[in-house]
Each structure stands twice: as structure tokens, then as C-alpha cells.
Amino acid sequence: MSMFSIFNVSGSAVSAQSQRLNVVASNLANADAVAGPDGQAYKSRQVIFETVPMESPASSGVKVSSIKESNEPFKRVHNPMHPAADAEGYVTQSNVNPVEEMVNMISASRSYQNNVEVMNTAKTLLLKTLQMGQ
Amino acid sequence: MFANLTNALDFQSKALVLRAERQRVIASNIANADTPGYTGRDINFKQAMGQAMGESSGLTLASSTSQSMSPAGTTHTRHIPLPSSTADGSGANGKLDYTVQTQPAMDGNSVDLDRERASFVDNSVRYEATLRFINGSSRTILSAIQGQ
Asked: Three-class SS of residue B97?
């Protein structure tokens, strides 16, 4: 039946959005982490979405094809008293932008809710179709 | 004789299949609302319905004098009509249109999530309406058969 594939499509979208939320959570958690002795701090990560063709041209799911690290310059804060300060007294922090991550989170959550609603509606319609003629 | 009874059911059941197909397309659009480079698809319901009805009715042979293209896609009675190209025999005939892009986006995504949600709700209501029409028709036929 053609409407059953909606569960595959929306299920893939829900899974992709939750991976995106996962990445946002990781970024926010590591927003204040400082660089280790090798000078490399936490690089902010983003998911890359890709369309996955499903059974027919009408259905396309989505998947996370890769997670990319951002190459923005690290944040350098002058704090000579910090134990991880380098020779010039600068502490290298991660390049996470918290405002951008919050916007990402709102967008991911909205998409997630939309796809859950699509699944609920499809389920209701299919159940009503089953009762056709009774 | 039975064709007279089931003609109304025939129309509504084709509409139901098309509505389900459109539901899938809109669900795909909503799922891919964040994918860069994705272009939104849609089904032109009126056109697809007309095609589905035209294929089943026997009008292609009778209207040889008309100049317009027959529903099977031929312009002359001696042309061989092409079969519909979908693997699962759905009414959309494998041809999906594109949604109208309202706002250009930097990542090349053309899906307007609000319009897709509205279309989804609209399509759901029409699907349910079609279900009710089918129920009503089948109950009418049953009561006629039972003679009540």
C-alpha cells in the first residue's frame, strides 16, 4: 500500500533530525572546553543531510551523509593565570558559536515535530481506511 | 449492469489512490525540508485525476474527430499509446511536478515548510472525505441489493 512508505520516509527524517540534535548538544557541551597541550581545541561539528531515494519517485527519505568539522578560527582569550595558558598568556577555546547552535536546535526541533505529526496523521488515515465499508 | 453500480465507486477509488500518492510526496517534502539542494515535488491532482479517468473510459476510440490529444497520449487513432511508466501502477504516471518556490534559500532547498504542512492537512481532509464518499456509496449499493 502506498501510504505505508510514509513511515519509512518520516522515520528517516526523525532519525536524521535527532542526530542533528545530538551534534548540537555535543557542541554546546564543549563550548567552553579549552585546548589540550597540542593546541587543538574542540572544533564545532555540523551534520550534512542527503536525500535517499526510496521505493518510488514519490518517496525520498533523508539521511546524515557525514559530520563535518568547522574550520573557523579558535577563540583566544587572554588569561595568563589559567593553567592551560600558552607562552603568551592566551587560552585557546573551542570555535562553537552558542547562538548559532541554539538556532540550529530550534530548527531541528521544529522539523522533528513536523515529521512526527506527519507519521501520526498517516497512521490515523490508514486506520480509517482499514475501517472502510464497516 | 454492474458497471452502472460501481462507476461511482470507481471514480472515488481512483481519487483515493491519488490522494495516498500525494500524501507520500508531501511527506517526502517535509522530511527533506532541511536537505541542501532538494527541490520540492507535488502532484497536479486535477491533471492526474483526468488522466486516470481518461484511461479507464472508452472515449479514445469514439472521439477520433477531436483535435486535442487523447488521454492515452496519442494524437492520431493509428498511433500506439505509450504505457504508463510507473512500476507500481500508481495513478501519478511517474510524472511529478515541482512545488512553487516562495523564498530562495542559500542551500538550494526549495521546500516551504508551512505550505507543505498546510498541503498535508488539506490532503488528509480530502482523503478522509473520499473515504466517507466510498463508504456512503458502498452502503447505498448494499441497501439497494438487500432491497431495503
From this structure: strand
**Rounded Cα gap, residues B26 and B24, in angstroms:** 5
Residue A2 DSSP symbol: G
Does residue B113 belong to the interface with chain A, where contact is any CB pair within 8 Å? Answer: yes
Tell me the C-alpha to C-alpha distance, in Å, between residue A67 and each of A24, A27, A70, A71.
12, 12, 10, 13
Interhelix angle B2-31/A98-130, rounded to 10 degrees, is 170
Give φ, ψ of B141 to 5 degrees: -60, -45
Specify the 3-state DSSP secondary structure of A68.
Answer: strand
Rounded CA separation B52/B140 (Å) = 25
Query: Is B100 in CB contact (< 8 Å) with chain A?
Result: no
- Which among A12, A58, A133 has CB closest to B31? A12
The model carries a pTM of 0.76
Chain B touched by A62 (CB under 8 Å)? yes
pLDDT digits (tens, 9 = 90+) for A30-77: 998 888 777 788 999 999 999 988 888 778 899 999 999 998 888 888
